[in-house]
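Data deposition worksheet. Section B asks for the primary sequence of the deposited chain exactly as it was used as input, without tags or linkers unless they were present during the calculation. Section C holds the resulting structure in token form. Section D is free text for depositor observations; keep each observation to a single sentence. Incomplete worksheets are returned to the depositor.
Section A, Depositor: J.P.
Section B:
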Amino acid sequence: MSEHGEDATAPPAPADHLDEVAAPPAEAEDVEAYYARIRAAADDEGRLPVAVEEMPGWDIYPYETDSLRLKPLQPPADEEPPRRGEDPADCWCRGPQRPDDGTTVWSNERWRLSLVAETGLPVMVSLGPVEHHDLPSLPTQLAAEMGQLVVAVADAVEHVPSVGRVQLAKYGDGGAHLHLFFLGRPARMLQLRGSPLIDWEENLPRVPLPVLQANARVVAERMVVHAGGTPGALGR
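Section C:
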């Protein structure tokens, strides 16, 4: 028997049963039933009441609630709209290798960490695979590495002097190529805590690119130490 770490062989992955569901489809709520149930809680104009006991009632909520109201509900669309790169052949990753324009923070053979160059936060970076994958179809080995990189990027962002905490976001409604956002919440600015940070970010003045690049160099150096890989140019 080999010792741990010496010629150890990982057990085979279990069979993929992701397409099998235990709940009968007839018992699972479809979107029309979901919409009808939500619409029944709205007023005659289709507006839901503002849940002031939830986020709008938090002391970190960025808007005054006196005149706040939600937009009228719209019914579900006929289908989900196509995203950029829905066809892998049309994804940006299939084109020529992009030159480092000063926004590559860190990379290895499988992943790239990019600087979001238009932001009001001290630093915002985006992590994505080099090859075309979306989150539900990410291969097991890349998924395992992504978990390790999430930890490493979070640690790196929180080492930027002006960052207090890091927030992690995944949307994927506009692009089919997996991309995770890491948002550096400014240190000691307690109004910017929690989920309202993204609302604040859109209204904060833009941070000059040289400042963002200098902050991102902290991230790059930490990433190389903890994850190997190569730092980006970042304006140097």
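Section D:
Confidence is low (pLDDT under 50) at residues 1-7.
The two ends are 51 Å apart (CA to CA).
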